[in-house]
Every structure is written in C-alpha cells, then in structure tokens.
Amino acid sequence: MATDKIGVEQDFVGNILSEARLALEKGSSFNRHFDYDGMGSNFFKTSVNIERVGDKYVLKLNAAYIGSKPENKLAETLGKPMALVSSSAKGIASIVDSWWFNINLEDVLAGLPIPNKQLRGLPEYLVSSGYSGEQDITFNHEGQKFSLDFSLCANWYLRPEGGKRGSEYVHARGNNIVGGAWTTWAENGDKIAPKVVQPAIVVSVALPGERYSRPVAVTEDQIKAVQTARNYLSDLMRLK
C-alpha cells in the first residue's frame, strides 16, 4: 500500500508543534524525545527542545549518531540565525620530548583577569573531565559578567601496554598537566602508526548561569558581547 511520506511527516511535525504550543502556554520550555515512536519519520531517536528566551523561541534538535547536524541544516535551509550557547578559543600547546606534553596552567592563564583562587583545583578538574572538583569561574569584561569553562583537548586513552582504566598517561602535577601527545587510531577506527598530536587548552565563554544550563545569547548585542569577550581572553592566553 502506497503512503504519502510528505503528508506523514507534516502530520508528525504538526503534532509536535501542537504539543509544544500547549507546553509553552504553561511554561518556558518544551522537551520531547522520540525513540521507536518516531520510527518512519525524520525524528527517529531524536530529541526536540524548544525554549522561550525573552520574546524569542530557541529550537534544539539532537539526533542519535549525528548530534546537532539536523538543527544546523534546518537553520541553513530556512535562513534563520542560530542562538549562541558559548564561544570558544583553543590554544595549541607545544610538544616536549617529541611525544609528550607538559602544560603549566599557571603560565598559560597568568594573563587572564581571573583571581588565582578561582583557578585552584583546575588541573585536577581538567584531567578528571569534570568529575573531580568544581569549576565556577567568572570574569567581567566591558562592564558585563561572563561564565567560563575550561577543557583539555588531548588523547585521553593512551596508557601503558596492558594498562587498565586509571593508568592513563594524563595526570595533574601541581599546576601542570602532563600526558602523551600521540595517537595510534585513524578516524575510521583503523590502527595506524603513532602520529604526533598537539594538545590544546580550550576556553569557552558564555552568559553567566549554572554550568549545565547556561542562558543562550539570542540578540545581536548578546552574541557580540560573548564573542568579544572570547577574543579578549584568546589574546591574553600564553602558550609555549
């Protein structure tokens, strides 16, 4: 029996919008995840989130295996601007002894307008991927407050031959983070000869708020302010 795929999709989207409209009349957000109930549509294993921010509505789409690609493609197709959650600067660090890195965070971040007490525990926080310690760092730029997140971009899976979880080379040593700077895996999963990969410290700037619920920047002024603050910090970072 033939089916009208376009008609089915339109009905599916229409139902989502009806549910969202009712939810947004009562609150400020709508959340729905489609698993097998989305089979046969473009929403199979996809999360839909709509949030009211001021007089605007922010749509987030996240699909299994491809992340936010549907959201990006939809914005491009409709010619709609995208809200900004955060803006990041990546500082590439140098390699020592050919295959290792040793980053002194105190040196790298010394030029940033952040009190030293806010940076305490940051090495442990980074090497534990946020599981050890807390990171609640803020700074002011041009009269406005921003939240900061730091992360380490490196190969976390390197360990001695036969080593188990917990024996990774990445460690915090005082103000330093040390680890291996190579990879043995290609993007398609095939094993390759070791190749040097430089690590990086990533600084992400966002509007002030809770770490897992940063308010999104939706106006041109907000987006420009976040990006300007990001550029300011990027110029101040010192990497050797």
List keywords for this structure.
240 residues; alpha+beta; 4-stranded antiparallel β-sheet; globular
* Beta strand %: 25-35%
What is the tally of beta strands?
12
Mean pLDDT: 85
Number of helices: 6
Order of strands in the sheet with the most strands?
A: 4-12-7-6
Describe this protein's structure.
It is a single chain. This protein has 240 residues and is an alpha+beta fold. The protein is 26% helix and 30% strand. The chain is built from six helices and twelve strands. The chain has helices at 5-26, 69-78, 105-108, 116-119, 122-127, 220-236, and strands spanning 29-34, 46-53, 56-63, 87-92, 100-104, 137-141, 144-153, 171-173, 176-180, 182-185, 191-196, 200-206. It is globular and about 60 Å long. The relative contact order is 0.15.
Task: Describe the structure in brief.
Helices cover 26% and strands 30% of the residues. By secondary structure, it is an alpha+beta fold. The longest helix is centred in the N-terminal third of the chain and has 22 residues.
Question: How is the topology of this model organized?
Answer:
Elements: H1 5-26, E1 29-34, E2 46-53, E3 56-63, H2 69-78, E4 87-92, E5 100-104, H3 105-108, H4 116-119, H5 122-127, E6 137-141, E7 144-153, E8 171-173, E9 176-180, E10 182-185, E11 191-196, E12 200-206, H6 220-236
Antiparallel strand pairs: 1-2, 2-3, 4-12, 5-9, 6-7, 7-12, 8-9, 10-11
